Every structure is written in structure tokens, then in C-alpha cells.
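User: I'm putting together a small comparison set for a docking exercise, and I want a reference complex before I start. The sequence is below, and the ligand is S-adenosylmethionine. Could you produce the 3D structure with the ligand included, as C-alpha cells?
Assistant: Of course. I'll restate your input first, then give the C-alpha cells for the complex.
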Amino acid sequence: MTRRRQHVPWKAAGSASESEHSADDVVRETGWVFNNQTGSDLSLADFVATGDNETVAYLQAFGLMDERVLHQTIVEIGSGIGRMTASFTRWFQKVVACDLDAAFLERCRETVAQFGQPDRLQTCHVADGRTLALPDDAADLVFSYITLQHCHHDDGLALAREAVRVTRAGGHIALNFRTWVAQDAVLWPTGKLVRATWRLPRVGPIIAQRRLTARLGWQANRLAPTEVLAALGESLTDVRIYRSPKRRSFNLPGVGDRTFEGVHRSHWWLVAEVR
Ligand SMILES: C[S@@+](CC[C@H](N)C(=O)[O-])C[C@H]1O[C@@H](n2cnc3c(N)ncnc32)[C@H](O)[C@@H]1O
């Protein structure tokens, strides 16, 4: 199987996480790849607390958080080491955590064992970066946060299609994407250059583990609502886009335009019911 360049920093962080002794050490060494926080006093408990706040805030904002979730299955695409997954297992009957990196999924199990409900967790290795090894109609909700922007453009769209495929009719998707902002005039070409260096023998893997270069290089795609909706539109109903109040409306006919303070200026969320 071809290893895509976009996979390099995640595999590098996954391998780094394997060599750490305790879950707190994993957070101190690699936690920044998930929530951008660094420090020698970080702990898994603090890390999970950041996820607890975000899951509930987003699901409430999207109108997807009520007592029905107690009987529902959620699929999380890009779970990492379980920052948000632990919280999901406390709310949902079943949680399927999917990630590109198998070491992250092992750590995710540990996180959920300490801070969630491990009997509700299933993991799913996204070995090719674009296919979910799950049956059709397996989920009531598919959720993905700060992940689809890190995939190859076509893999991001493929995973969005997979989200729809695995969601039952009447279920929902809540998918976070990143689109163009003015700073991309500089960030985008710099990121491309950094990604090219990841392939260099010997130094490439070292560069991929450095925080500054990883952050520049891992923004692998920009997907605008028009492009994603062109790929998924027919299979969705009650389509809403959530954006930052600081950014202008995407102005798409037939699509709900909602704002939420918690959304980053460069991000947008597609929230919709699957037909
Ligand atoms: C920035 S982290 C976000 C993790 C988690 N959603 C959170 O907020 O803590 C992105 C995650 O997406 C995973 N990822 C990147 N590309 C992927 C792909 N093509 N398929 C599945 N997971 C992917 C990475 O391994 C990483 O765990």
C-alpha cells in the first residue's frame, strides 16, 4: 500500500507515543498534535478535560445532544489517543474510534479505560486513510474534528462519503473541515515545502516530529462547502453549515447558515441528516 505523505507526521507521533512509559508522558510528548498544548506538567486528566468540554459544546450547538444519545452509536473519525473519545463513551451506548495510526488507537483504549467506559468502545484502523472498515448503516452519528483537513484532498472527500455510507437513514453527520483564509497565501506553499522534506531519508522523520514544521506541513487540504456538498449533497437533508461569527456566510442556497463562537475562523462544520 502506498504511504501518503500526509500520513507521515501522524505515524511519527504514533511511533513516539509507543516509546513513552506512562499515559501522562504520552500527553507531554505528543499531546500537542491534538490540542496544541505543551508543558512538563500536563497530564492525561487535563488533556481529556479539554475534550470533555468540546464534545458537549459542539453536540449541543448542533442540536445533537439529548437523552437519545444514551441508546446511540457514534463513529468518530480521527480519534487520536482519545481526547474526545473518553467523553463520547460516557454519553453514547457505543463508540467506534477510527484512526489512521494503530498506536494511537491503543493509547485511545488506555485513555477510555481511565476516563471513560471501555466496554462501550470499539476501534477501527483506517489503514488506507480513506476507508472505514464498518458496515453500512452502523452509526446514528458520525463525528470528525480537526481530521479531514489533515488528509489528502481526495481522502478527505472519501472519508466524508464513508461517513454518509455508515450512517443509518435518519442519522446525522457532524464533520469539521478547513477552508481558505487570507494567511493561506503564505501557509499553503510553505506547508507544501515542509511536506516535501518529510520524504527525505534520515532527516525527514526527524523534521516530521518537530512541532513547528509538523504544524506547517500537516494542513494537507482545504475543502470548501461547495465541493463537499457537490460530493454528498444528494444523500443529505436538513443541511446546516456552522461557521465562526467572525467569518462571512458561505451563502449557499437551501443550506442553513449558523454561527457558533467555538468554531475557528478557518473551520466550518457540515451538520446534516442522512436520507
Ligand atoms: C489533530 S488530530 C485530532 C484528534 C481528535 N479529533 C482530537 O480533537 O483530539 C488528527 C487525527 O486524525 C488522524 N488522521 C489523520 N489523517 C487521517 C486519515 N486519513 N484517516 C483517519 N485518521 C486520520 C491522526 O492520526 C490524528 O489522530
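The domain at 5-274 is CATH 3.40.50.150 (Rossmann fold). DSSP finds eleven helices and eight strands in the chain.
User: Thanks, that's exactly what I needed.
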